[in-house]
Amino acid sequence: MSERPLVSVVVPFFDSERYLAACIESLLVQQGVDERYEILLIDNGSSDGSAAIAGRYDEVRLLREPKRGAYAARNAGIRAASAPVIALTDADCVVGRGWLRAILDGMREPRTAILLGACSYGGGASWPLRLLGAWENAKAEYVLGHCEPAHHFAYANNMAVRTSVFDEIGPFEEWQRAADSELVHRLAARRPELEVRFDRGMEVTHLEFERGRARAERLKLYRRTNSQIATFRELGPAQRVGVLVHLLAGRRAKA
After folding, report:
1. pTM of this prediction?
2. Dist CA 73 CA 63 (whole Å)
3. Residue at 2 is within a domain
4. Which among 82, 85, 47, 86 is positioned nearest to 64, based on CA atoms?
5. Domain of residue 31, CATH code
6. What confidence tens digit (pLDDT) does each residue in 42-69 have?
7. I need a labelling partner for 174 at 20 to 30 A (CA). Which of 32, 165, 198, 254 fits?
């Protein structure tokens, strides 16, 4: 890729041979960015064929982080990144062809510090899982657009952050989970004038889940782990109704 990238893509992986090639392939066919981006893959101690798969691609840079944990691996990628914007996704995701273009367009607004995008599920996803995905996207869009920062959250499988944010407030906490949401709350405390926004043009497809129950269990886990963030507050009844109204309005607009 270009020697002076506009964006650095950081992807941690651990025993991800089932999905990793599809993730990499999706990153290599990005449109509208003139190849001015770098791809950093961070092996977090895989014991399967993931590293060998990553090594097949000359276009990517393969790093290794021995400290276990996805956030430790992401921080290793962030330290090695050379662009002013860092785009984050996971090895079990494929990104839309306009993903990086949407990120760069979204970052044109100087006050935007962090972007979150829309997530969907693969072609084999059940109807309940697709409905849950629509709820998740509506919730992110509504909460970031209409709710107080105490309710804000993030997810590193579809996230972009200005490198200057990490330079100023530090890297991800190397927790097992919820460090992406913690970063958003740390930013709100330190730089309240900066914005965290949702952008539907940033699309990724999450390949790991095919059934709604498995995803719902994971979301329950996220809710529990968010409680370790001192400033985080779950949505109340009024905000949940707001998400539902937002979801239904969006579905009517598409009809």
Report:
1. 0.93
2. 9
3. no
4. 47
5. 3.90.550.10
6. 999 999 999 999 999 999 999 999 999 9
7. 198
